[in-house]
Design a protein that fits this description.
The chain is mostly beta strands. Helices cover 6% and strands 44% of the residues.
Amino acid sequence: MKKLSETLTELGIDFSFPIVIKDSNNNETYYEKSNGAWCKTGYNANGDRTYYETSNDFWCKREYDNNGYTSYYETSNDFWWKCEYDRKGNLTYYETSDGYKKGTPRSQSCNGKVVEVDGKKYKLTEL
């Protein structure tokens, strides 16, 4: 990525370091120091950080579920994790890129399925 200071210099716009840019919610979206180091940050509508990138070629991104819990995290180092939560915010499933798994993902849950026992049907409810 081209540094903002380079673009400002090319355009003949005067500036001083550090260069700080904030969005309408006062979240810092860009920061650059005089030594050339910079970082860029993205946020969702709730103000949660969704992306972070540095001049060292490191980046990470996050995704959130409908309740605002982090459901996915990934880095430029090829590491990721994903998780799921129940309605009360309790962690019900966790998996990482190195093969660790704990819990049961919703896609494998029996919640809402109907079973029949001795001719009677029962709908399963996840607790």
